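Worked example 2:
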Amino acid sequence: MKKWLQWWLGIVLWLFTVGCGKMPQSGFVAVDEGTLYYEITGEGEPLIFVHGHSLDCRMWREQVAYFSDRYRVVTYDARGYGRSSKQREDLRFTHCDDLVALMDALGIERAHVVGLSMGGFIAGDLVAMYPERLLSVVLCEGHIRSTPSVNHPMTDAERATKQHSIDAIAEEGLAAYKARWFEQLMQGGTAAERMREPLREIIDAWDGWQATHHEVHCYYAREAMDTLRSRRPLVPTLFIEGHRPNREAPQEPSMMRYLPNSHMVVVPDCGHMVNMERPEAFNGAVEAFLSRL
């Protein structure tokens, strides 16, 4: 199927969702020294989707359309992305605590949480630090980071390394850097072209702040892993990994050792952006997981 036709079918599906009376409720909630933009569609148990780096809540359009007839689907823009407030080099925060603040503001005590890439980092922090807030968690192409915690300031060596990257991007030009990053995200399987237009739309809107500034440590990261080892929470957990052609099969993430109620699904012929490249397989894996709870 031609890519333009695939893209328009996605738009038609979204319009059908709106036409069926599932027009999202949207707004902003206050977090520490900022605001988060959110959208809510449907009714039922809360199901929160957390987007990846350089993206925003629009990456979940096909999941909103699919799940909102059974769940209260919440999507949002993380701090520094989309319509949420900007990051600052001097502001200490975590995306995980921002998500908890969003849940508090929306009156959500516990939720199913699905995160991809950066969203998986955030969901990984959440299952370690706030397991009591989760009904279940899905981590796709992203787990607890192995970087220093928010409680450890950036070292001089880290700052120098990041400054070198910032200088290189300034020399190349932000537009050229974003074009290279976009093509990296497009590397997938035989269905990758279906996501070219919607993914380009989102990447074009990204301001590139995180690539051109000294971003503070905004994850619990190593501290979260240490906490996970000691707590071993029983939160039902699903890991989803894409398997690109001619690549070694994904290995089970180390997190699984400390999550007794977890398992992994591998989506074949697929790259990093599993939910956009193979939405049928992604939605089916998440739905099967939730139906067993």
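The first helix runs from residue 3 to 19. Residues 114 and 138 are 5 Å apart (CA to CA).
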